[in-house]
């Protein structure tokens, strides 16, 4: 029953009058074995509440409903939402929401299982993972982003998302998935990733104000990852118009805090978190709040 193959998926989309929308990252799973793999890897127990982002035609949702207490499924596309309402009209443990996940007030869940819209991976990560007590995640995402969150592959992939993600989460496993397991096949390669929350998130990151500074700081220095840290910080502060600090002063401040002026890529994730705290403090010592 409900073996979501390519032909069937095309047929349903035709009937619904839907042309897959690239901007919404509409690439539907057409292979049941991938769905099974996702369910297996998610290790859901029957008393868990799950968040699904972008259920689409419900290929994954259908299985999630069998194994969990409840599924919150956020689908932005009204036609798909209507289709799902109908499809799951007899099912009690689903709550379908026709909302943009990025704007939604999501109820607390401790697991997210989704083949997410690839177009908004970064903002989704920020919304669901970059916070105190994040959920664990079993997600299909773009392979190039998956490679960047697994820091083990150092330095080529060491980037903004590496640092932000690893400040809150631990990447556990990654499997490559062929793009032909989706309709339409996306241009990019995909990966299934299993991630879990860190137990030791730096307490500095637990206030919204500090967290948003940290994310800005990382976004601001990583474009200069091949420069020394003092240069990168100087350029971030100047270009983002935070404050104009002379380089020697930044150098001296770092020295005072026992930080060497090395290349940005030499720093570990946790060192960069700590550094964002120091720079935050430096700015607030200098600027009246
Ligand atoms: N999970 C389904 C569909 C994946 S395609 C499957 O595996 O087959 C991505 C889905 O996310 C689409 O249904 C798209 O309409 C939905 N989507 C895109 N942007 C969204 C947003 N901001 N909020 C909620 N859903 C979104």
Structural notes for this entry:
By secondary structure, this protein is of the alpha/beta class. It has two domains: 6-199, Vaccinia Virus protein VP39 (Rossmann fold, 3-Layer(aba) Sandwich), CATH 3.40.50.150; 204-286, rRNA adenine dimethylase, C-terminal domain (Helicase, Ruva Protein, domain 3, Orthogonal Bundle), CATH 1.10.8. 41% of the residues lie in helices and 16% in strands. The strands form two sheets. A seven-stranded mixed sheet has the order 4-3-2-5-6-9-7. A two-stranded antiparallel sheet has the order 1-8. It is elongated. The N and C termini lie far apart (62 Å). S-adenosyl-L-homocysteine binds at residues 24-29, 53-57, 59-60, 74-77, 80, 100-102, 115, 117, 120.
Assembly state of the chains shown: single chain
How big is the Rg?
21 Å
Mean residue pLDDT: 94
Helix content: 40-55%
What topology, given as strand order, has the largest sheet?
4-3-2-5-6-9-7
Secondary-structure class: alpha/beta
What is the fourth-level CATH superfamily of the largest domain? Answer: Vaccinia Virus protein VP39
Layout of secondary structure:
Layout lengths: L5 H11 L11 E2 L2 H11 L6 E5 L5 H9 L2 E5 L3 H10 L6 E4 L13 E5 L5 H8 L7 E7 H7 L10 H9 E9 L4 E2 L6 E8 L10 H14 L7 H11 L7 H10 L12 H18 L3
Parallel strand pairs: 2-3, 2-5, 3-4, 5-6
Antiparallel strand pairs: 1-8, 6-9, 7-9
Helix pairs in contact: 2-3, 7-11, 8-11, 9-10
The chain binds S-adenosyl-L-homocysteine (SAH).
């Amino acid at each position: 029953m409900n073996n979501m193959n390519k032909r069937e998926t095309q047929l349903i989309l035709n009937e619904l009058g839907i042309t897959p929308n690239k901007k919404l990252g509409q690439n539907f799973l057409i292979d049941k074995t991938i769905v099974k793999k996702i369910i297996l890897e998610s290790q859901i127990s029957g008393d868990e509440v799950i968040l699904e982002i972008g259920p689409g035609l419900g290929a994954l949702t259908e299985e999630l409903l069998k194994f969990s207490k409840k599924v919150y499924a956020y689908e932005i596309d009204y036609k798909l939402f209507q289709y799902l309402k109908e499809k799951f009209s007899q099912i009690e443990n689903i709550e379908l929401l026709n909302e943009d996940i990025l704007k939604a007030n999501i109820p607390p869940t401790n697991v997210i299982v989704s083949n997410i819209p690839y177009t908004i991976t970064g903002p989704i990560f920020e919304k669901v993972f970059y916070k105190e007590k994040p959920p664990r995640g079993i997600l299909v995402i773009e392979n190039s982003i998956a490679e960047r969150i697994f820091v083990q592959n150092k330095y080529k992939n060491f980037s903004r998302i590496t640092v932000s993600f690893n400040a809150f989460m631990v990447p556990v496993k990654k499997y490559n998935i062929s793009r032909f397991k989706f309709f339409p096949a996306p241009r990019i390669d995909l990966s299934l990733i299993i991630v879990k929350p860190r137990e030791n998130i730096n307490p500095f990151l637990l206030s919204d104000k500090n967290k948003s500074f940290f994310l800005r700081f990382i976004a601001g220095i990583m474009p200069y990852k091949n420069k020394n840290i003092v240069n990168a910080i100087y350029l971030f502060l100047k270009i983002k118009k935070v404050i104009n600090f002379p380089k020697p002063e930044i150098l001296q401040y770092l020295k005072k805090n026992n930080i060497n002026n090395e290349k940005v890529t030499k720093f570990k994730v946790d060192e960069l978190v700590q550094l964002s705290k120091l720079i935050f403090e430096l700015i607030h010592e200098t600027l009246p709040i």
